[in-house]
Amino acid sequence: MEKNTRLILALDVLDSDEAIRISEAVTGHVDAIKVGYPLVLASGLQIIGKLAEYASIIADFKVADIPNTNRLICEQVFDAGADAVIVQGFTGHDSLEICVDLARERNKDIFVVTEMSHPGALDLMQDAGEKIARMAADQKASGVVAPATRPERVKEIRKIIGNELAIISPGVGAQGGSAADTIMAGTDWVIVGRKIYQSDDPAKAAKDIVSEIKDVL
Ligand code: XMP
């Protein structure tokens, strides 16, 4: 994934025509489009290949199964045209390793969820977040997912993983996080969904976030 605008669109719309229209509109303003269960369940896995015409595709399936099942899932998703898959880290080293190995073979990326961006992540996930970040670094995953809603946690996670791994951060906009604060905390890319795709002018919304990012670089 090229690091140009440092913005990733989370495209959680349900209609494939709308997904294509928004992707076309934001081309050049985003470095990647993150596609997850809402869009894929509503419009089929083939939407990944269609959107890949506009940007790199990160499949946010938060894969969390035994190693063999994780591999079967990642194979399907890479075959569909995704450049990267988001995988949960809490399932442990073997479940993660099989995904990282497959991605390496295919020249693709795995991003590992550490601590999620919503308030409930404090119930259980935060305690495991740093251990998961260390595991992602040990296994040389491409990067981790860390919360834009808690820039102080992004800083902590950056200290653990060093500069070899990337950080991608959801939680900007609708969940209250700031793109500028998250970039200054050490994230490589911010992930923004509703603030862009629910806007009357998604291209302008994306452009404004990119300007906010550029102002602090
Ligand atoms: P919004 O509309 O809130 O969309 O800007 C955020 C997008 O990011 C996903 N999300 C996460 N994915 N770890 C992840 O891997 C997280 O901590 C996390 N928090 C939010 C969410 O599903 C939506 O697509």
Descriptive account of the structure:
- The chain is α/β, with parallel strands linked by helices.
- The chain has one domain (7-215): Alpha-Beta Barrel (TIM Barrel).
- It is 46% helix and 18% strand.
- The chain contains ten helices and eight strands.
- The chain has helices at 16-26, 37-43, 47-51, 67-79, 93-105, 125-138, 151-161, 179-185, 194-197, 202-215; strands at residues 7-10, 32-36, 56-63, 84-88, 109-113, 143-145, 166-170, 189-192.
- The protein has an eight-stranded parallel barrel with strand order 1-2-3-4-5-6-7-8, surrounded by six helices.
- Helix 5 (93-105) links the parallel strand 4 (84-88) and strand 5.
- Helix 4 (67-79) packs parallel to helix 5, helix 6 runs parallel beside helix 7 (151-161) and helix 7 (151-161) runs parallel beside helix 8.
- The longest helix has 14 residues, at 125-138.
- The protein is globular, with a radius of gyration of 16 Å.
- The model has no long low-confidence stretch (mean pLDDT 97).
- Xanthosine-5'-monophosphate binds at residues 10, 12, 36, 60, 62, 86, 113, 116-117, 145, 147, 170-171, 173-175, 191-194.
- Residues 10, 12, 36, 60, 62, 86, 113, 116-117, 145, 147, 170-171, 173-175, 191-194 line the site of xanthosine-5'-monophosphate.
